[in-house]
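note to self — DONT lose this again. spent like an hour looking for the file last time. sequence + predicted structure for the chain T wanted, 334 res
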Amino acid sequence: MTNRRGHLRAIAGIALVLMVSLGAGGPALAALVKTRIGAGVSPPSMDTIVIYVANEQGYFRAAGLDAEILAFRGGTTNAKALLAGEIDVSAEMGASTAIVSAAKGADMRAYYVLSGVPPYYLVARAPISRVTELAGRSIAVSGIGAISYHIPRAVLERAGVDPEKAKYVAIGSPADRFRAVVAGKVDATLAAPVEAVQLERYPQVRVLVKIPEVLPEFIYELTVAKKTTAQQKPEVVGGVVKGLIQGARFAARNKEAVVRIAHKITNVDEETLARSYDIFPKEHWSVNGELSRSQYEFSANLLTRVGYMKEPLPYAEFFDPRFVESALKELGRW
């Protein structure tokens, strides 16, 4: 009898261990995969907040990732970090940087559209009042080759001005660039929504154009990884894409929560963040994450015309939809 009781106790102990390890009868919890995710703006800004929303809300963790977000000053630095293996996935890379880099042979492809429309405003100091007056003037950019460099060039080209006639000054983040314009160190820059809602404080700075109105077809931000990473670590790229889609959907319907997260991440006051949220174009929140062939071809052809690459990659060689398709199959479309 004693031996039988001991045997039963042993069985019960084994069962308890199994219940703990299996989550009360469910599948065993797999170890989280350490993943370094790159953001292209440092310090972080409201227009890149989806990355941080996904992390704060636990979507990356739910996708099996132990995510570390590394912020870089501009798209070119971000791209270099990706290619050097310092990050696994760039969640937010300026589309122009990604398109041009891939066309020039870099081992990178796009797997998700983080934001389909640039939310920027092209602003300039008085007495400049129109785009054509930027010839011979200085424009602050995050870096030569970044999206903040390409968008003004595209706007100039559409206005009939040779983009080479302007002077491009690498300064850094949207906040740094805006301060440079306010201080009179440069003549113009792209202002993010957070800076745009503060323009009433600076009567010497005026909006020349709203980028979503003059370049609505131009892709803004892409999630990019090396082809080798997608092949060898599909769970990482797929987990980032799924987490970002969930983060975008949360952001699109939870203004107050997003403002709180943005305040925590950026230290910008909540009133300014709330006002900037309100002026984002609705396409900013990429709730399905797909890249249309027409949008890609417009952006790639424009970048070719303004002289930053000779020939773009074909759409099918640049955008790989498999991770978006897998996420949408599970999450459904919006």
